[in-house]
Amino acid sequence: MSWPPTLDDLKLDLKITEPDDVRDDAVLEVQLDAAVAFVERVRSDIDYTEDEVNPQPKPDPDLVLGTIRLAGRWFTRRRSPDALVAMGELGSARIPSFDPDIERLLGIGRYRGPVFA
Q1: For residue range 103-113, what is the model confidence (pLDDT) as tens digits?
Q2: Where are the domains of the chain?
């Protein structure tokens, strides 16, 4: 996987496999761009360019997948701004504001290693 993730990567992860299904492409692209910008901001210890001289690590597959999953989560959460989702006969359920699996993939939150200034 390469950096930054593409719209096709996001659609594949969301199981949108029909090639002519473009109805959510604009919204998905906004979510993906925001997720990429967020990850580049909070993980400034990663070299996102093709600069071979820079000694910083390159984005690994965990970071790319975490970014894709973050964009997918934001896409899904836009339908529940009050953090509740209706589940028919089962009632409603609360959607937590964070996902530990995504935080683990991105290496943020409580999964962030020590940082030396």
Answers
A1: 999 999 888 88
A2: 7-111
